[in-house]
Amino acid sequence: KGCKLVGCGSAVPSLKVSNDDLSKIVDTSDEWISVRTGIRNRRVLSGNESLTALAVEAARKALQMARVDPDDVDLVLMCTSTPEDLFGSGPQVQKSLGCKRNPLAYDITAACSGFVLGLVSAACHIRGGGFNNVLVIGADSLSRHVDWMDRGTCILFGDAAGAVLVQACDSEEDGLFGFDLHSDGEGGRHLNVNFKEQETHNEMGSNGSVLSFPPRRHSYSCLQMNGKEVFRFAVRCVPQSIELALAKAGLSAANIDWLLLHQANQRIIDAVATRLDIPSERVISNLANYGNTSAASIPLALDEAVQSGKVKSGQTIAAAGFGAGLTWGSTIVRW
Ligand code: ACO
């Protein structure tokens, strides 16, 4: 059985935050941010906007493009590391979409690699599990997890959602070719949002041991990152991963129409393209307008490129995600 991408959509919050806006809250400048990262603006959830609602809007647009009814969706993969319910947002998205046949819905947590993992998981569910219409949604709100006083990280991130509908098809039409996926927990210390226990009430247990009970308030630390290490990791591992995925697909970098990387930093995108010998005219980037939107960045950039007519039906795209975990992976798809 084959699988193909048949629709895409995206949604961003209404509040736009420019580099100049940020320079009013931390010691930074438009020049520093744009030269080092390529980012000029980002969108941030505000008021009563919710990430789940953005995910639903993106998914609805993908279904409309594909002309598929929500009732015909049999799996929703919600790729997010910032769910609005720790138990997962997928079922809430399923409910709000109005999928009356109650398809399976669950979350995939793999930071900025989440969407690529979602695409590969969709293909596995279709090829091995009998699923027919799988919504893969990438949605993240890292604005809720950064320290807005830390100029080293708060300048990088934005909030967004993007979605793609992956559909079963005959093997001749197959549009999801090779893939390559990795993780390295050892490198996780370079980028994380760690769990922290704030207060505990210590008591002596009956056998003399100290009990931390009852547990009090718990929360997560703000995002912490060693930018230089993350930069080195991305530039070293992503080109290798794309080459492995291309080799599995029987292709080379010269055969692909577009390079679509997780939008983390323009200098990372340029360095990976240079290593693969892919000219900038074949590289998709919308980072300047949205910053790093984690699992949403690839479907958001894809949707923009499809809507503008840049990416055309039948074209081949090498997509790669990388980020916390550390995790990274690539897949070769036909639009
Ligand atoms: N404005 C002004 N100065 C700043 C800012 C800022 N926003 N941030 C840091 N600086 C200062 C530092 O304090 C430091 O000053 P010092 O020399 O007086 O100590 C100086 O600028 C250099 O700081 P570095 O952190 O060494 O800057 P670097 O050149 O490494 O650039 C950056 C930082 C842009 C974060 C870069 O390391 C990077 O892009 N790394 C990749 C990060 C990334 O892509 N992360 C996300 C990927 S994974 C995911 O998506 C979750």
UniProtKB/TrEMBL annotation:
Beta-ketoacyl-[acyl-carrier-protein] synthase III C-terminal domain residues: 246-335
GO MF term set: 3-oxoacyl-[acyl-carrier-protein] synthase activity; beta-ketoacyl-acyl-carrier-protein synthase III activity
Pathway it works in: Lipid metabolism; fatty acid biosynthesis
KW Amino-acid biosynthesis (keyword) present: no
Single GO biological process annotation from the record: fatty acid biosynthetic process
Assigned EC number: 2.3.1.180
Protein name: beta-ketoacyl-[acyl-carrier-protein] synthase III
Functional description taken from the UniProt entry: Catalyzes the condensation reaction of fatty acid synthesis by the addition to an acyl acceptor of two carbons from malonyl-ACP. KAS III catalyzes the first condensation reaction which initiates fatty acid synthesis and may therefore play a role in governing the total rate of fatty acid production. Possesses both acetoacetyl-ACP synthase and acetyl transacylase activities.
Residues of the full protein shown: 63 to 397 of 398
Limits of the Beta-ketoacyl-[acyl-carrier-protein] synthase III N-terminal domain: 106-185
UniProt keyword list: Fatty acid biosynthesis, Fatty acid metabolism, Lipid biosynthesis, Lipid metabolism, Transferase
Gene Ontology cellular component list: chloroplast
Catalytic activity of the protein: malonyl-[ACP] + acetyl-CoA + H(+) = 3-oxobutanoyl-[ACP] + CO2 + CoA
Transmembrane intervals: none
Similarity comment text for this entry: Belongs to the thiolase-like superfamily. FabH family.
